[in-house]
Amino acid sequence: MSADSRIAAITARIVERSKPTRERYLDRVRAAVAKGVHRSVLSCGNLAHGFAVCSPAEKQALAEDRVPNLGIITSYNDMLSAHQPFETYPAIIRQAAAEAGGIAQVAGGVPAMCDGVTQGQPGMELSLFSRDLIAMAAGVGLSHNMFDSAVYLGVCDKIVPGLTIAALTFGHLPAIFIPAGPMTSGIPNDEKSRIRQLYAEGKVGRAELLDAESKSYHGPGTCTFYGTANSNQMLMEIMGFHMPGASFINPGTPLREALTREATKRALAITAMGNEFTPAGEMIDERSIVNGVVGLHATGGSTNHTLHIVAMARAAGIRLTWEDISDLSDVVPLLARVYPNGLADVNHFHAAGGMGFLIKQLLRRGLLHDDVRTVFGQGLEAYTIDVKLGENGSVHREPSPEDSADPKVLARIEAPFQPTGGLKMLTGNIGKAVIKISAVKPERHVVQAPAIVFNDQQELQDAFKQGKLNRDFIAVVRFQGPKSNGMPELHRLTPPLGVLQDRGHMVALVTDGRMSGASGKVPAAIHLTPEASEGGPIARIRDGDIIRLDAVAGTLEVMVDAAEFNARQPAEVDLEANEFGMGRELFAPFRRAAGAAEHGASVLF
After folding, report:
1. What is the pLDDT of residues 534-565, one digit of tens each?
2. pLDDT per residue over 566-576, tens digit each?
């Protein structure tokens, strides 16, 4: 158990709240295990279709149920830098599986879209829902019931949460996540941000902006800032879905391939055909989820995970709430300074000690549950390592150093960057929202100013360019929730609001939409629920209403007489323009079925 009584108490209340749904979930997992997780349950015709392209020896082994079969779910495409390295993984995995006495087949592919490509574009309105679609697509691949275990090849924003939902839905199967790693460091992230703000002010042109962006995003691997993609990798390791040390090794290196081979062999070792059966649905429990949230706070992780980890937990019958996340934030100190919470990137984080050092520090203070199951077969203590390439191309692990190689990037538990984590919940008379404050200066944790209301992000962009926003204000950007338009990220708001803040104005954002995993220095109350399309109070806010955003007290209030405010008719907006183009018409059922942001904004739960 966790040595910290506050962590233990929060975990206990999650366990108690989740009992009915968790027990039903585990009953289903155990029933699926009892039915058989291998090919013995298939008819001859079923099986013949399933191994038609296998070699004669493989067919015989599968027919006799003598060897484990590993299903590969891949998000490979070669347009996106983070997923391009996966092109060669199936061949590596098949070879490693054969060496371990098993067989591997690509069970299916899932879509992988990039929020970086679609920021501010119509396609962004598909982004959040792609998470649930990815879970469904992975489910199609695994529904053939040909597999004893599964490996998941995914990295970025919605892909890993979607794959995790699938892995837990097929919780009777062991599951290992195999990452591709971050690209090598390019232009410093603060320099990229500076050029973006200069462009927003009209001080540099498109050519200069594109040059800076291209030097930042320049090769295979994830973007190097600490957004949702790299928060995903941290989560998979601290929750025990990765092999120890696997998260942040660059693509195309011998160590990256060695880790892929090792994960393959481990995935075959933990099937029901061996002695270390580790079904994902039993491996991941309330303690694992709490460990994930602790990791998010300690690293200043992505705001998107206030949606994703809630949905991931629900897939395992676990009821995690924003209150739980916020209360854990009050307990967990910030130990990492990675852009946008600092100047370093994830390569610098890894070089400073990375996940092994981070987990060691958190365990030292009792802030993590060590007694969890992992794909490695041991508790989290086994993840307090430094991973290297060993002899003959093997993976070699050494104990993580006692000191950070760069205390400006990764701190010891005794000297954190701040005493609390980066994600908090706000509540008040306009609903519930979340805010990331790890990159917000303390003097901006409380903002009280008049509202300026916008019904889409372009309206704010236009007002900024016309010079109408040179004052203190709180931007209210509404009709951006899941039912309105799929809850796109509003990342294009960051440069103009950042410019206005740098000019000395007190500014903040309140929205029922999302901000990027790179949410930064401007205080932003996001994911507000109930959303405007549901008649939420945000739809009754008017220009000039005084709003108080208090990240210290955890409150978000419109300072209007309650009777007057409640008597107002909610604003209505014609959203037809958001219903067609770039595939948005195909996602109309998702918009209709989407749940509230505090429940993960999912169509599945």
Report:
1. 999 999 999 999 999 999 999 999 999 999 99
2. 999 999 999 98
The DSSP secondary structure of 375-386, one letter per residue, reads: TTSS-GGGGSEE
What is the rounded distance in angstroms from the CA atom of residue 338 to the CA atom of residue 225? 7
What is the mean predicted confidence (pLDDT) over 29-58?
87
Q: Tokens 């200043």 map to which residue?
A: 300
The one-character DSSP state at 80 is: S
Handedness of CA 435, 334, 233, 147 (dihedral sign): negative
Q: Candidates 3.50.30.80, 3.40.50.970, 1.10.3210.10, 1.20.120.1200; correct CATH number of 423-599? A: 3.50.30.80
What is the C-alpha to C-alpha distance for residues 420 and 297, in angstroms, rounded to an integer? 8
Average of per-residue pLDDT across 277-299: 97
Tokens standing for 149?
């275990």
Q: Which residues contact 334 (CB under 8 A, 6 or more apart)?
A: 297, 298, 299, 300, 341, 411, 416, 417, 418, 419, 420, 421, 422, 438
Q: What angle do CA 296, 301, 306 make, to 5 degrees?
A: 75
**Residue found by looking up tokens 């990375």 in the block:** 354
- Distance separating alpha carbons of residues 237 and 294, to the nearest angstrom: 12
**223 annotated ligand binder:** yes
Distances (CA, A) of 32 to 7, 240, 370, 491, 604: 32, 22, 28, 42, 20
Nearest to 468 by CA among 485, 452, 486, 446: 452
* Three-class DSSP category at 391: helix
| Total Cβ atoms within 10 A of residue 202 | 8
CA distances from 581 to 80, 107, 259, 482 (A): 22, 31, 41, 17
- pLDDT tens figures, 384-393: 999 999 988 9
| Phi, psi values for residue 222, rounded to 5° | -70, 155
**Strands 423-428 and 431-436, bridge-based pairing:** antiparallel
Residues 401-425 pLDDT 10s? 999 999 999 999 999 999 998 788 9
Helix, strand, coil percent values for the chain (each to nearest 5) = 45, 15, 40
Question: What whole-number distance in Å separates Cα of residue 182 and Cα of residue 229?
Answer: 9
Strands 446-454 and 473-477: parallel
Distance CA(84)–CA(218), nearest Å, equals: 13
Annotated binding residue 44: no
The residue extents of the domains of the chain are 5-59+69-184+219-399, 423-599
d(CA 21, CA 4): 26
Is residue 284 classed exposed, middle or buried when 0-12, 13-18 and 19+ CB atoms within 10 A define those classes? buried
Residues 391/255, Cβ–Cβ less than 8 Å: no
